[in-house]
Design a protein that fits this description.
It is a single chain. By secondary structure, this protein is of the alpha/beta class. It folds into two domains: 245 residues, Type I PLP-dependent aspartate aminotransferase-like (Major domain) (Aspartate Aminotransferase, domain 2, 3-Layer(aba) Sandwich); 125 residues, Alpha-Beta Complex (Aspartate Aminotransferase, domain 1). Helix content is 37%, strand content 14%. It is built from eleven helices and twelve strands. The strands form two sheets. It has an eight-stranded mixed β-sheet, with helices on both faces. Strands 8-9-12-10 form a four-stranded antiparallel β-sheet. The chain is globular. Bound molecules: pyridoxal-5'-phosphate. Pyridoxal-5'-phosphate binds next to α3 and α4.
């Protein structure tokens, strides 16, 4: 592929980090993961950061904490457009998915449509920051507060994004998830993180991450009083957990990637500026930035004459070596898996439906993409001129 969705951002430093772990002889979660968690919390100015083996696991443990520790029940407001594993942990913990349409321009949940969807059984808002762009948190925070709802974030696509409240996306809500999978902003092979405000929640998540045991909790934690007997405490189980620990190598790589992140962010933003400029003269809608986006990729919604011609556009791009994807899962309710889930439908998903039929995204990464963006522009323009 001439213009793939993502590129490798490793150099010798990540390889050295892996070698350090091999030399240490400890491959399972240990001091390098802890170091990365501390650096992450300090970089993104959040009280706690707990690393797991994927962004999906981060979402799972957040929902597990809502259900098991907070005893929340009922329905949770979710945007109609997101990734599958935003939604599945809700199903796994018996929450109803209360779908709200997105804003066609930001691609994130439309705050104006949330309050009419809230009912007596609504317990939380799960905001998703799509493709590097944060939700409108000024409004979301007010709505959550006014209605007594917990606000949580799926920030797996938006590490490094700054919100309209001048916070780091993923640290606004009580919990926020991050993904370090290959195509994401920082890459640790597989990997994820949970940012959370409360120390007790972080300790609960630390237990849920590793079999539900109390072993990883600090001695002065507030959620379980350890016996002080190392033998007993090593196999004492306090929460109905999982085994979703990250590898030690992923922690070591994460520290290197985080150091490189500010430079990598700049490159992404430079590409985005060029993309926005180039596409302002075609009948397409590109993503409207809220705060400062970290530009995961570039979304394109086909409008006017181009609307309804996505197949031709995608085929033409593919023949030019340009990789593209649907805008995450489109209107998620149109996926066959929906038959397994309990949902609340608001019967108003015009924007999610529009992007389901007319939207796609292309990649952004840390290389200079001007030539590739030109190629995409030329290709779409030539389809436009032919139809
Ligand atoms: C919005 C969103 N949430 C969650 C995930 C899951 O992250 P992971 O692939 O690390 O499990 C993704 C993955 O792309 C995502 O886009």
């Amino acid at each position: 592929m001439k213009y793939p969705l993502a590129c490798d951002t490793w150099d010798d430093r990540e390889v050295e980090a892996i070698q350090k772990v091999i030399k240490s002889g400890r491959y399972t979660m240990g001091p390098y993961v802890k170091q990365f968690e501390e650096q992450f919390a300090s970089h993104f100015n959040c009280e706690n950061a707990v690393m797991v083996n994927s962004g999906s696991s981060a979402n799972l443990l957040i929902l597990a904490t809502l259900a098991e520790k907070y005893k929340l029940r009922g329905n949770i407001i979710v945007p109609a457009v997101s990734w599958s594993t935003t939604y599945f942990p809700l199903h796994q913990y018996d929450f109803t998915l209360n779908f709200v349409d997105i804003d066609k321009h930001t691609l994130n949940i439309d705050p104006n449509k949330i309050e009419s969807a809230i009912n007596a059984m609504t317990c939380a808002i799960f905001a998703v920051n799509l493709l590097g762009n944060s939700c409108k948190y000024k409004e979301l925070k007010e709505i959550a507060e006014r209605n007594g709802l917990m606000l949580i974030e799926d920030n797996c696509e938006s590490l490094g994004s700054i919100t309209d409240t001048q916070e780091n996306a993923g640290t606004v809500g009580q919990f926020g998830s991050f993904s370090f999978f290959f195509s994401h902003h920082i890459q640790t092979m597989e990997g994820g993180m949970i940012a959370c405000k409360s120390n007790d929640d972080a300790d609960f998540i630390r237990s849920m991450r590793a079999h539900g045991w109390c072993r990883d909790l600090p001695d002065d934690n507030k959620i379980y009083k350890k016996s002080g007997n190392k033998f007993k405490d090593s196999f004492t189980f306090i929460a109905p957990g999982y085994s979703v620990r990250p590898l030690e190598m992923s922690g070591a790589i994460g520290s290197v990637q985080l150091e490189k992140w500010p430079g990598m962010r700049e490159k992404r933003v430079e590409n985005a500026k060029y993309f926005k400029e180039m596409f302002s003269n075609l009948p397409v809608t590109t993503q409207k930035e809220i705060g400062n986006s970290s530009w995961f990729g570039f979304s394109i919604l086909l409008e006017d004459r181009l609307a309804g011609h996505r197949d031709i556009v995608i085929q033409s791009l593919e023949s030019q070596g340009v990789e593209s994807r649907p805008i995450v899962a489109g209107n998620f309710m149109k996926n066959p898996v929906i038959k397994y889930l309990n949902i609340l439908s608001q019967n108003d998903y015009d924007n999610a439906d529009y992007i389901h039929e007319n939207g796609f995204f292309i990649g952004n990464d840390i290389r200079d993409l001007k030539e590739n963006i030109d190629l995409v522009h030329e290709t779409i323009k030539s389809v436009h001129d032919q139809i």
